[in-house]
Amino acid sequence: MSIGFRILNRERAVSTDLIARFAALPVANVSDAMHRMTGAGPRLMRMHRSGAMAGPAITVKARPGDNLMLHKAIDMAGPGDVIVVDGGGDLTNSLMGELMLAHAINRGVAGFVIHGAIRDADAIAEANLPLWAAGVTHRGPYKDGPGEINVPIALDGMVIEPGDLVIGDGDGVLAVPFEVASEVLEKTEAKQMAEAKLMAQITARTNDRSWIDETLRRLGCALPAA
Fold first, then answer.
1. At 1, is the secondary structure helix, strand, or coil?
2. Does residue 48 form part of some domain?
3. Which of 34, 35, 41, 101 is the most exposed place for a label (fewest CB within 10 A)?
4. Which spans of this chain does the record mark as coiled coil (predicted)?
5. How many CB atoms lie within 10 A of CB 187?
6. Phi-psi map region of 150: left, alpha, beta (phi>0 left; psi -120 to 50 alpha)
């Protein structure tokens, strides 16, 4: 096995039922259900106009500035897959542009997360396939490798394994590990219900705000006399 230059098959993927249920939930609430300890960092910016994303990861580890393995990953992807690329965060050369995106759309790819740069930013925004990247440059990529497909990768400390759930919306992207996806979903749906109840109370002006002063007193904050 050639470590650093290899292509593997994905052996597992989150179920379509889980994907559909996560797709209806805000990324922020999923993050809360994971104790706010996981994230890919603020460098990943939404490059499409609007819309959310949810799907199983195909992972790519690319040499900075080289997109040979990303091309191969698009050819391997099936409908609903999310392609996640560890390009080292390098912004010197773009890893994909309009033509690659068009091919991915034809294959039914659900979205991209690229820890690197893209180009043809206006066309990508217009196509509106969910895509997050670290930056934009007109300088094109090389196609020499090496790289890996369907190996564990990490984006700013967020570990993604092949088949993990990857979600994204206006607040950013998040990977939910395959093994705990059902547990995280249950906690997130419970939080969503609690927030809906609180929103109804806010709308009716019946929400209880006493917890703020109680917390301040517990922390030893001096409050003005009532």
1. coil
2. yes
3. 35
4. none
5. 17
6. left
